[in-house]
Structures are given as C-alpha cells and as structure tokens.
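Technical note accompanying the year-one report. For the benefit of new consortium partners, we illustrate the data format agreed upon in the data management plan: each record pairs a sequence with a structure-token string. No post-processing was applied to the example shown here.
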Amino acid sequence: MNRALTIFLKELRETFRDRRVVQAAFVMPVFMILLMVFLFGMLEKKLSEPPRPEIAVVGQEVTGVRAALLKGLAGETKYVADRESGVKMLREGKVKLVVQFDPDFEEKVASGQTKMQIVFDPTNTMSQISAGTVRKAVEALNVQRARATFEAAGYPGNAVEPIKLQESADKPPEGLGGSLLAGLLPYLIVLWAFYGGMSLAADMVAGEKERGTLETLLTTPVSRMDIVVGKALALGTTCLCSAGSSLIALLVVGAMGLPATREMFPSGLSLPVTSVLTLLLVIVSLVAMFTTILMAVSSYAKTMREAQTYLTLVSFAVLMPAVSSQFIGFTGAERAPWIRWTPVLNAAMSLRDALVGRIDWGSTVATVGLSFAIAVVFAMLTVRLFKDERILGKGA
C-alpha cells in the first residue's frame, strides 16, 4: 500500500505541474460557475422589474379608456400616422408593439361595437410579453364593464365571474430551492467530474506507453496492482477536486451576499445535513465511475492520440444524459423508474434533489449502487489489462 501511495503522490505532483491540467480541472470550473452566478443574477434581477416597452400607437394622443388600456405597459409611447408606419418600426426593433384603436372607439366602447388591434413580433420575447399585458388589460376592462352592466340591471355583479381562482405558492424547500442554480449546478458538477480528469487520463497510461516510461515503471519492484491503485487515486482526486470546485465556489459566492448575486439565493444557502451527505455520496460514486472508465480507456489505447479519440467518444455518452437532466422536468418523467437506472442522468437528478432538499432515497441508493457497480467492472478491466504483457505494446 505504501508503494501505491508513492505512485499516487508522484502522479499528483505531475498533475499540479501541468498548467494545462490545472486550468482545465480547477480554474475553468470555478470561472464557469462564477460567470453563471453573476450572469443569471443580473438576468433574474432584470426580469423582476416591470418591463417598459416602447409602443407605437396609430393616430393622435389617446385619452380616456384607451389610455387606461395602455397604462399597464408603462413604456414610451410613439404616435404614428398609420398602421404600416408602426409595423415598419416593429420590424426594425424600434417598438415592441403596435396598437390601433377604431376611430370612434370611445363612443362605441360601451355598446361593445368597437375593437382594438395589436401587432406584435412573435420572435421577440418583450413583444410577446407586451401583447400579453394588453390582453389582460382588455379582459379586466371587459369584466369591469360587464359587472357594471349586470349591477345596473339589478343582477349581482359577481355573476360575471362565478369562479374565482386563488393561487398560492408552496413554501420553497431549504437549500437552493427556487433558484435557477438548483437545475444548473448538478449539470456542471457531472461535466467537470468527467472533463476535469479527461485531460489527465490520456497521458496517465497511454502517454507513458508512448514515451516508454511505463515499461520502466513495470520493471520496478512496485506491483502492477499498486501502480493501478496509485494512478487511479491520483486521477480520482483530480476528478473529485474538479467537481467539488464548482460547489465550493458557489458556496463562497453565496456566503459573500453580493448585491449582484443575491437574487440567486432566495432561500439562502443553508443545506440540511442529509443533503450534504447525499451530495458527497453521489459525487464520490460518480467520480469512482468516471475514474475507472478513464483509466480503462487510457490503458486500452496504444497512443495518446488514440486515447483522446476514445475519450472524446466516451464524453458524448456523458454529455447527452447530463444535458437531458436540464430538460427532463419538462416531460414530467423526472420521477420515472428508468431515470434511476440511467447512469449519469440519475446522478444529476439525485444531486438536484439534494440541492433543493427533496431527497428520493430510493433513487439515491440506486444511483450510488449503480455507479459503484460500473466502477467495479471497469476497475477489474483495468487490472486485467495491466496484468497482460500486451499493455506495453500495440496489442494492448
């Protein structure tokens, strides 16, 4: 075991001497999470403010009911001579909405014989929001008018709206519940757990084969099992630090309470002990799985270039389920039984559950068990490759 520890320390020293690996495994994860926290923080703060879109109104300055309908937009109003001029400004991006009232709108509004026309840009989000605001204003005014008519005729005004909808949001769970980061962070942790070690894995065995140093290492008194264990520990440590750096950077930024990032932590940063333990367990099992896969691929490849080619293909198998974790919630299948038996995807979902404080223990146990089972299979494969003399040659 002491010899495995020696190999581990030697590989770790070489890892930290390689600036390329340090930047890919440690600097980039921290940079990416900081960039996203500040970017999403500013975006969420902007979205919480009421929009003030520019609108084009056909005709002269409006008053009365027409002004009341446009009051909700609270943006700059530009008056244009005709509809075509307004549409032209809409296409040029100078306004977000074109509004046109019938010429005798004010006189006929009480009789219900008039109309209001709007033109919006379906490719512009702000334009769609502005159109929705006008729709709500028209519906509210119609209800108000109908209620007045009912009451004038001696009927109860509430008959206009026989069903009242009462909405209330459930109390957000502890942790990052309610934050955009709860969905994004698991995706980043999974990706960096793999890509953080990917840059190192190709050189760890295939690189040594190519340089001829592996043959020298195998002739030393160190057993091949110790070599595998030492290299795997160094690679696993790199993967673990790379995955954990995103989480640590997030905790540091959250604890600082910066105004630019405060919107990203609506429920604070307090995580229950069970969530912390679950995060650690899932990340460690995920790192074990990635480490053994990377080691097996590097041991099988004849050269560094071949190892990099194989690892690129494997990265797609990691990337696809990781990306799917960002969209699975829209399908309603986030609790489907097959999720817990899909590698990588199950880890991302378990990490998300832990971050929002809603742990599904069945899924967590299945995720950890499956990840460790895959790790054992690839660890056995790596040991078998190392015990074969062909690992030194092209037949490995």
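Partners are asked to follow this layout when depositing records. Strands lie at 55-58, 77-80, 97-101, 116-120.
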